[in-house]
Amino acid sequence: MTSITTTTGPVTGGVDTHGETHHAAVLDQVGRELGDREFPTTPSGYRALLAWLAGHGQLDRVGVEGTGAYGAALARHLRAGGVTVVEVDRPDRKARRASGKSDPLDAYAAARAALSRRATGAGKSRDGRVEAIRALRIARCSAVKARAAATNQLKSLLVSGPAELREQLRHLSTTVLITTCANLRPTSDLADPVQATKAALRRLARRHQNLSKEITEADVDLKNLVTAAAPRLLALRGVGIEVAGQLLTTAGDNPDRLRSEAAFAHLCGVAPVPASSGRTHRHRLNRGGGRAANNALYIVVLSRLCYDARTREYVDRRTKEGLSKPEIIRCLKRYVAREIFTLLTARTASEQSHQVLPMSTVA
């Protein structure tokens, strides 16, 4: 911890976040280092951190690393105290090789990024219905992956299992196979491979059934929350509960933090990336942004390619212009992002009643 210096002018804070402690630093309005200090990640620690920063002068803003992870609770506390919170990316490897790496250095780097306005993005508020949706989707996604793993393990075990058991079950569909295996009755002689395999199959099948019940319950909860949060989003062609939940989670409870629909497109990884050379003018795949949000937009586009006549007309027109199918899909995802951003950021009654043109019409 360095010594504390006070000033009568505005000051800017920076915080390097960790699981058990946060390291804070403060700069004056011309970038001079006023001090740094470590605080525990507890409610009392957050209060002490804010009081310490404010004790140096008029607190203008605070740059925080990881507002969506280790810094989420601190960011909520700072916003509740009326402080402007800026999301700061961690220093790149080149800067760390040149300047070194330590908690005070990272905290000062976060403060400089906020002071210079190099970092201007506001983190997600994580204090509303969308945060509840995010939490439930995490549990649902985990259950879906675990159910798929149980299915694969059951079928793999059946392939390598005793021949008589395999012949009895191998031709069943997955649904019937799960039900049948869940009702198997092995004897207590688990030293017998046949009986041990039956016991394993029954456990995996019952795990599959329990996970299916958990997923169904999560779907009901998510449907209620997503419908209440964004009914107009669900009315769009190709947008269901899963897609809407993902896009809401990507935008957060405060989508107004996104400065423009172009910023939302970058967030989703659907902003065009120039890849032109000489007489060739084209755009390539954008590998940045949130891949889950990108996949949600892809699902919307696939649905409209199948069921929306105007979208198919757009595809025919762009195909005649020489675009490949992947390039056309990238264009369509960009149009969908623009349409969805308009709905996500609608706040007032007049905005809610505003009619948004369908993606295929815009295209």
Report on this model:
57% of the residues lie in helices and 11% in strands. It has 363 residues and is an alpha/beta fold. Helix 5 (129-159) packs antiparallel against helix 8 (193-229), helix 11 packs across helix 14 and helix 12 (291-307) packs across helix 14 (325-344). It is globular and about 85 Å long. Residues 347-363 have low confidence and may be disordered.
Tell me what portion of residues adopts beta-strand conformation.
Answer: 5-15%
* Annotation, overall tally of beta strands: 7
The residue fraction in helices comes out at 55-70%
Q: Are there runs of 5+ residues with pLDDT below 50, and where? A: 347-363
Return the average pLDDT rounded to an integer: 88
Distance between the termini: 57 Å
SSE string, helix = H, strand = E?
EEEHEHEHHHHHHHHHEEHHHHH
Helix segment tally? 16
Strand order of the largest sheet: 3-2-1-4-5
Silhouette: globular
Q: Which value, in Å, is the CA radius of gyration?
A: 27 Å
For the sheet with most strands, the description reads:
5 strands, mixed
Task: Indicate the structural class.
Answer: alpha/beta
What does the secondary structure layout of this molecule look like, with pairings?
Layout: E1 10-17, E2 21-28, E3 33-40, H1 43-54, E4 58-65, H2 72-80, E5 84-88, H3 93-99, H4 103-115, H5 129-159, H6 163-169, H7 174-182, H8 193-229, H9 231-234, H10 241-251, H11 261-268, E6 273-274, E7 283-284, H12 291-307, H13 309-320, H14 325-344, H15 349-353, H16 359-362
Parallel strand pairs: 1-4, 4-5
Antiparallel strand pairs: 1-2, 2-3, 6-7
